[in-house]
Amino acid sequence: MKLKKGDTVVVLSGKEKGKKGKIVRVHPAGLTVVVEGVNIKKKHRRPTKSGEKGQVIEKQNPIASGKVGFVCPACGKAVRLGYKLEEKRKVRVCKKCGAEV
Ligand SMILES: [Zn+2]
Prior knowledge:
By secondary structure, this protein is mostly beta strands. The protein is built from no helices and 10 strands. The two termini are 15 Å apart. Zinc ion binds at residues 72, 74-75, 79, 94, 96-97, 99.
């Protein structure tokens, strides 16, 4: 799991293919991520009291992390990420342009 909060990703498969957004949450196990504007489910809530209006609640649902690709901020493409060690620090690098991300 190389993705982290704040990364820009693009959906690679499914009905929302091509949508881009920022990761707002990464599931602790790394299997799913919540991406801004992706996989929004609308939920209608009925009024519970008389005189109250029904509401439409938009909920962002997680998406499988395997279905999204990292978008490199340097080259702007959906790329694979690699790691390199730099002064005992592990940094993520874009496999396409080599930029640290
Ligand atoms: Zn790049």
